[in-house]
Amino acid sequence: MHNRLKPLLLKNTGALQRLLCFFQGGIDVEYTVQGLSSLAGVSTRTLRYYDEIGLLKPAKINSSGYRIYGAAEVDRLQQILFYRELGVQLDKIKEIITSPSFDRITALREHREKLLEKRKQLDLLIENVEKTIALTEGKIKMSDREKFEGFKRKLIDENEKKYGKEIREKYGEDAVNNSNKKFLNMTQEQYEEFEKLSAEMLDTLKAAFATGDPAGELAQKAADLHRQWLCYTWDTYSKEAHAGLAQMYVYDERFRSYYDKEQSGLAEFLRDAILVYTGMK
Question: What are the helix (H) ranges across 98-172?
Fold first, then answer.
């Protein structure tokens, strides 16, 4: 990052939005924790934590005991914030940027592609909202197909607001984006099958719950129906991901309440049935 003094205004959210890439080649600028915190828009506590876990070490400690950061550390912080914005967990970020094969230019190009993909999704949602406003005001007419496309985008938008952060951290940016893309490409007939399968799975699950046996025939049928239902939106299926999602159904109150509103303890029963189904129990 040695054509520095061209500020890079990142049209993103949070700390990444405020990080400006300074320093022209040959100009040696140093920052304390407070100074870097102010530059990047992240808390001093966050910077100290990054130091503790070995993610972002200062260039040196001065005679007064202050952490001092230079150009290389600003570069590294920028990369960290790029990955955080894309939902990558800290341990994975550390693994990526400390790898001997890490290439900053390649990483920046990958970031750019992913951000462009996010912008494309947002543009589609904005376009649909604008169309819906115009339709409501009687300015335009929308076909049933357009309404259905808008409905799917609305569901994705709502899901992102409720669960986006958690599922992106757990499964990764690419997996979630591919899942959203698959859902958007779903035909109305496929969506009706998707909804029918969901209802069948829930009815089977409630009947299985009455038996009290998550390893029983009914419970395993419910787990298999759940797998089929997931495959309508998941780009690829794995037993590990299926089991991980089942665990989330129990540990995350928002997921848990979805099933437990039907029957108290249903989320935990589904989790146990899926763990048996996937061989994880």
Answer: 104-136, 144-171
Backbone angles phi, psi at 162, to 5 degrees: -80, -50
Residue 94, token pair as written in the block: 């550390």
The model's pLDDT over 47-83, given as tens digits with 9 standing for 90+, comes to 999 999 999 999 999 998 999 999 889 989 988 988 8
Within 8 A by CB and 6+ apart from 234, the residues are: 175, 179, 182, 241
CA count, 13 A, side-chain hemisphere, 169: 10
CA 241 – CA 62 distance, rounded (Å): 47
What kind of architecture, by CATH, is found in domain 14-102? Orthogonal Bundle (1.10)
CATH architecture of 188-277: Orthogonal Bundle (1.10)
- As annotated, the residues of the chain forming the CATH 1.10.490.50 domain(s) are 188-277
CB distance 255 to 267 below 8 Å: yes
